[in-house]
Amino acid sequence: MASRKLLLLPGDGIGPEAMAEVRKLIAVMNEETNAGFETEEGLVGGCAYDAHGASISEGDMEKAMAADAVLFGAVGGPKWDSVPYEVRPEAGLLRLRKDMQLFANLRPAICYPALAHSSSLKPDVVEGLDILIVRELTGGVYFGEPKEIIDLGNGQKRGIDTQIYDTFEIERISGVAFELARTRRGEVCSMEKRNVMKSGVLWNEVVTATHKAKYADVKLTHMLADAGGMQLVRWPKQFDVIVTDNLFGDMLSDVAAMLTGSLGMLPSASLGAPDARTGSRKALYEPVHGSAPDIAGQGIANPIAMIASFAMCLRYSFNMVAEADRLEAAISAVLDDGIRTKDIASEGVQTVSTSDMGDAIVAKFRA
Ligand code: NAD
Q: Whose CA is nearest to atom 43 of ligand 1?
């Protein structure tokens, strides 16, 4: 039996409530399909600060580096609003991304037919939507130096951020996008601002060259990122995979996400480079939402984003494509049956608890 090492980092707020539903699925898969998941647990965020005075301990970092995949819940909450900046809850997530060198962030925007009416767009615009945004996560303007505010001495200050991309960074992120497109509709749209940014000119050149050299079977188009934002709300179904830099990806993935309704539905994956020897990638899977302190502890959080993040883990870390398909189908079937947590329910509709939603998905998965 294959052994698959998972590190679970539930975190704060609703993180542990959502993770509990994934634990049920792991148990079922070990029992029914001999999946061989071995799980370890760790602390991240505010709970890690309370226990160790750090947003993640060195011991848990070691576990993360040794795991085949990390499942992350959410971090933060008002309790830790005034802790020192270096040990704030989010620092744990940033440390994981940095040390695991997770340069590719995958954010699917899928609109389940049963929820098409809860989007702010017309149902026919979003129903059946299935976009994957591939965002570069470790470079660009969020990290480029110089990054500072300088005093100009004349009563004025100057804020500086620097957008930097090297060829290898663009090659590797576009490679991820092309490879994922091959498993989908086979189309990539690259977005930058080559009309006003030198980094955009280079981005465009390198994506084009990478496509020509290795991925000519995939259809490649280019779009200016501002036009891309407009097209995402005009007719999102024109897109399959979108590849873009850190800054534009941050914004465009949030736009795409909200096409589909609630934050409680959105999964994500962050991947590193494949290991030269084993071919496996470091990877972290997490819902897009935060720790939702306003509803934490009430048992009403929607666990679907966390469960769908686990489905991405099955697909991308373990190549368990059939199981991932089955889990995503189970989520869809539960929604078709009208089962709703509060965040996705229309007014007057009866709602279920976090645990009931998890149980309903487990039952469909088993069936
Ligand atoms: P949030 O995502 O936690 O919540 C926003 C709103 O969406 C809230 O009303 C919440 O109740 C609702 N919501 C979110 N997830 C839900 C779910 N699964 N089911 C039902 N409703 C859900 O964002 P926020 O309120 O801006 O931030 C709260 C805390 O989370 C802050 O401390 C913030 O720093 C942190 N945060 C963490 C992450 C992360 O861990 N990756 C991401 C974003 C925010």
A: 290
Select the CATH number that applies to the domain covering 1-106+261-367 from these four: 1.20.1560.10, 3.30.390.50, 3.90.420.10, 3.40.718.10.
3.40.718.10
pLDDT tens digit sequence for 218-239: 999 999 999 999 999 999 999 9
Q: Which token pair is 251? A: 């914004």
pLDDT at site 1: 53
Q: What per-residue confidence (pLDDT) applies to 258?
A: 80
What confidence score (pLDDT) does residue 2 get?
67
Nearest CA to ligand 1 atom 44: 290
pLDDT, tens only, 8-37: 999 999 999 999 999 999 999 999 888 999
Q: Annotated catalytic, 226?
A: yes
Read off the pLDDT of each residue in 254-267 and give the average, rounded to a whole number. Answer: 84
Mean pLDDT of 290-299: 97
Q: Which of 99, 130, 161, 250 is catalytic?
A: 250
Active-site annotation holds for 98:
no
The answer to whether residue 142 is catalytic is yes
Say what the alpha-carbon torsion angle 72, 74, 75, 76 is, to the nearest 10 degrees: 180
When pLDDT is averaged across residues 82-86 and rounded to a whole number, the result is 93
Residue 9: what are its φ and ψ, rounded to 5°? -120, 85
Q: Which CATH architecture has domain 130-258?
A: 3-Layer(aba) Sandwich (3.40)
Long-range contacts of 306-309 (CB under 8 A, 24+ apart): 306/18, 306/19, 306/21, 306/22, 306/71, 306/73, 306/267, 307/18, 307/21, 307/22, 307/25, 307/331, 307/358, 307/361, 308/265, 308/266, 308/267, 309/71, 309/267, 309/268, 309/269, 309/285
Q: Which residue has the tokens 């992350």?
A: 72
Place of tokens 């049920």: 24
Cβ atoms of 259 and 278 within 8 Å: the answer is no
Q: Which atom of ligand 1 is nearest to the CA of 18?
A: 18
What residue ranges do the domains of the chain occupy? 1-106+261-367, 130-258
Q: What is the pLDDT of residue 119?
A: 84
Q: Check pocket membership of 291 for ligand 1, CB cut-off 6 A.
A: yes
